Amino acid sequence: MDLEYKTSVENGKGLIIVEGDLDxxxxxxxxxxxxxxxxxxxxxxxxLDLDGVEIINSYGIGKILMCYKRLKAEDxxxxxxxxxxxxxxxxxxxxxxxxxxVDSSPSAAAPAEQPA
Length: 116
Prior knowledge:
Structural class: alpha/beta
Shape: globular
Radius of gyration: 14 Å
CATH architecture: 2-Layer Sandwich
Strand content: 15-25%
CATH superfamily: STAS domain
CATH class: Alpha Beta
Distance between the termini: 44 Å
Number of helices: 3
CATH topology: Transcription Regulator spoIIAA
């Protein structure tokens, strides 16, 4: 069974929801496929939601940087949803937190809390 990540377009931005570990060829190919789907549909602002990722290694980081480079060549931007846990630590350690802007807009997948 092939791994697939959910994609959507929200607020004019492409969104890729990455679930599970991003540390092997299968997960890397799933990310590349999801990215290409949005990119080929003309999306030049793409947001990665890595909240469902527990483990990320150099393989996963390499795939993310590949997406970043392709978007940058087209004057696009790759953003991340606010990071947590191990993924946040990894991004900070590699100083990737300075490379990727954070998209804090609420997504349809995680609705904003309603005021009481």
